């Protein structure tokens, strides 16, 4: 992306595409899957606070093996306890049919399967190769279709792998197309370890867009190297309007050591509103939700915007 391209990225250049952006909140799942012993009640309170802030898509938990990720073992309870708001999607990760059965039982509004563009990451994360994961997803997709429940698809390691390093954009595009053709309504492209930079992110997205329509793509950037907002800026004018982010910048992946949380939702919302894009989210209420969970976890809030709002409130 040239400097000229960047300077052309303004509300005007964005007006050719929709001015509404959908934020998929990852905090309760991606955010908390690395945190030990978060009480179920605190997860429920976080999800309810996010919905009260106007967030319409929330990943509430994950139905994976409790031996692999014990932090998510109470996802059924979480989904059962939340007071649901009309029009809000409460989603859950499901790696296999067993996970889907548990998610259906807990009345998840939709589920997500998760694959990878890296063989080594696939093996470490879900204990099978990319091809085996696709085989595993087939009966899950059939069952979800029969239950009339939408399925989202993740592709991890789209800009680098903690075990293999560089990942070819063509491989990201190949796996994305498979998940899309299997029936996933949206494919979320995950920079699992947050190593991507704007030019690479844009090239990767362009490669995937040759095989999956852009309106079916979402971007999921971890912010390990502080590049997530820049990456999103570099990709916005290609037409993507769905982004994953995590309140207070919570999180990381248990099978990607050293990876930090997702881009903070507050930082994303602030930037999108500044570009004249609509999210339907009340930024102050979102920041309060982030401070609530940060206090519970006894950690600093990872959102610069939330901290700035707090400072402003004190001044
Ligand atoms: C996929 C498996 C289950 C395979 O694990 P496995 O050991 O190969 O599975 P298995 O079928 O042999 O089963 C082993 C045991 O797990 C149980 N089991 C089996 N499935 C389930 C289930 N769904 N729910 C509950 N229990 C389950 C099963 O019943 C059995 O129990 P046992 O007989 O030993 O008592 C395992 O590898 C796993 O759970 N992995 C999940 C890892 C994970 O959650 N990673 C983090 C999420 S991905 C992520 O963060 C990336 C993302 C999405 O955010 C995007 C990005 O940033 O890149």
UniProtKB/TrEMBL annotation:
Pfam families assigned to the protein according to its UniProt record, in alphabetical order: HMGL-like
Catalytic activity: (3S)-3-hydroxy-3-methylglutaryl-CoA = acetoacetate + acetyl-CoA
This protein's pathway: Metabolic intermediate metabolism; (S)-3-hydroxy-3-methylglutaryl-CoA degradation; acetoacetate from (S)-3-hydroxy-3-methylglutaryl-CoA: step 1/1
Sequence intervals crossing the membrane: none
Keywords: Lyase, Metal-binding
Keyword Metal-binding: yes
Principal EC category: lyase
CDD domains in the record: DRE_TIM_HMGL (cd07938)
Record GO terms (molecular function): hydroxymethylglutaryl-CoA lyase activity; metal ion binding
Domain Pyruvate carboxyltransferase stretches: 21-287
EC number: 4.1.3.4
InterPro entries reported for this sequence: Aldolase_TIM, HMG_CoA_lyase_AS, HMGL, PYR_CT
GO BP, one annotated term: L-leucine catabolic process
Recorded family membership: Belongs to the HMG-CoA lyase family.
Protein name: hydroxymethylglutaryl-CoA lyase
């Amino acid at each position: 992306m040239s400097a000229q391209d960047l300077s052309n990225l303004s509300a005007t250049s964005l007006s050719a595409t929709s001015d509404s952006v959908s934020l998929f909140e990852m905090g309760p799942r991606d955010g908390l899957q690395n945190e030990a012993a978060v009480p179920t009640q605190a997860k429920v309170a976080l999800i309810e606070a996010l919905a009260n802030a106007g967030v319409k898509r929330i990943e509430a938990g994950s139905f994976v093996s409790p031996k692999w990720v014990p932090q998510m073992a109470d996802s059924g309870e979480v989904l059962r306890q939340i007071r649901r708001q009309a029009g809000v999607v409460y989603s859950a990760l499901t790696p296999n049919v067993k996970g889907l059965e548990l998610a259906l039982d807990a009345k998840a509004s939709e589920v997500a399967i998760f694959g990878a563009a890296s063989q080594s990451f696939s093996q470490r994360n879900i204990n099978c190769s990319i091809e085996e994961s696709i085989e595993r997803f087939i009966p899950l997709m059939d069952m979800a279709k029969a239950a009339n429940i939408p399925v989202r698809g993740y592709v991890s390691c789209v800009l680098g792998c903690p075990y293999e390093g560089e990942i070819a954009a063509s491989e990201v595009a190949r796996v994305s197309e498979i998940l899309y053709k299997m029936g996933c309504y949206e494919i979320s492209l995950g920079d699992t370890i947050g190593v991507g930079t704007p030019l690479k992110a844009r090239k990767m997205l362009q490669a995937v867009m040759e095989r999956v329509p852009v309106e079916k793509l979402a971007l999921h950037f971890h912010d390990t190297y502080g590049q997530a907002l820049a990456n999103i800026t570099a990709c916005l004018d290609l037409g993507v309007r769905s982004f994953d982010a995590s309140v207070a910048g919570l999180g990381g992946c248990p099978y990607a050591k050293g990876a930090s949380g997702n881009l903070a939702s507050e930082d994303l919302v602030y930037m999108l509103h500044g570009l004249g894009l609509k999210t339907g989210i009340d930024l102050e209420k979102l920041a309060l939700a982030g401070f609530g969970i940060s206090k519970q976890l006894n950690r600093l809030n990872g959102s610069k915007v939330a901290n700035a709002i707090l400072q402003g409130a004190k001044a």
